[in-house]
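tokens incoming
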């Protein structure tokens, strides 16, 4: 939800309550911008979710070495405050102090606390708490999404139910080389790979094919996501997943 929010842009119209015709906005560089009444503004959710002022980050990206941070990478460890982790240490002292202050001030957590208060619903001082307004997948304030609590409960419930029985992985069959075609079956290349073929890979082979599958998935996300009210994948290429049963009972491809 940080990297791929459902709504990438939040439109706002400037309507001051004090009756003024023009308001001023001071940018980070000190420049002052005058905003007339009735001006439409588009709040870019993706930009604030990847702003190094508000999020722990490493000084480099594993996906793109040219990047000076890893905020466009999916790194769940980002939410953990660890003095031995480079993401925590590279963050500004102001950012770390803000997170710690919020964790001390709010002792009661709720399922929507991450959205409403900029903090985790898990009571632990080691969890990173983004400042309010830095994590807004459901917008914020009085016009925020009314269904955000239900959405969060549903998301956690579905994820817990699936992950209880399945491990979710990228489908690497297209990168495994020539398939073992059944004689006269006429079935497609991807459909012919059996579970035993994938599990027979050596650790080195697994690393290579999963790296290729990961690179392809990120390329599709980078190039083919487009916004039409909500963020959607519009291209013809799809990202294949496989759900592997934890009890060894086989797998399902999606």
């Amino acid at each position: 939800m940080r990297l791929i929010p459902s709504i990438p842009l939040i439109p706002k119209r400037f309507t001051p309550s004090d009756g003024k015709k023009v308001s001023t906005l001071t940018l980070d560089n000190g420049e002052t911008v005058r905003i007339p009444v009735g001006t439409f503004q588009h709040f870019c959710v993706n930009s604030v979710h990847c702003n190094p002022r508000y999020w722990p980050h490493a000084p480099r990206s594993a996906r793109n070495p040219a990047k000076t941070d890893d905020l466009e990478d999916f790194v769940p460890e980002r939410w953990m405050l660890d003095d031995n982790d480079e993401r925590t240490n590279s963050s500004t002292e102001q950012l770390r102090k803000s997170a710690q202050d919020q964790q001390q001030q709010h002792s009661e957590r709720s399922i929507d606390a991450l959205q409403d208060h900029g903090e985790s619903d898990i009571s632990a001082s080691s969890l990173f708490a983004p400042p309010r307004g830095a994590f807004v997948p459901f917008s914020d304030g009085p016009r925020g999404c009314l269904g955000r609590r239900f959405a969060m409960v549903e998301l956690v419930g579905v994820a817990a139910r699936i992950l209880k029985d399945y491990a979710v992985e990228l489908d690497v069959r297209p990168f495994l080389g020539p398939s073992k075609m059944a004689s006269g079956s006429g079935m497609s290349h991807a459909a012919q790979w059996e579970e035993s073929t994938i599990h027979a890979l050596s650790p080195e082979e697994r690393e290579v094919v999963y790296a290729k599958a990961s690179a392809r998935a990120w390329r599709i996300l980078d190039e083919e996501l487009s916004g039409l009210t909500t963020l959607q994948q519009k291209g013809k290429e799809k990202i294949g997943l496989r759900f592997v049963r934890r009890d060894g009972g086989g797998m399902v491809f999606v």
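note: DSSP finds seven helices and nine strands in the chain.
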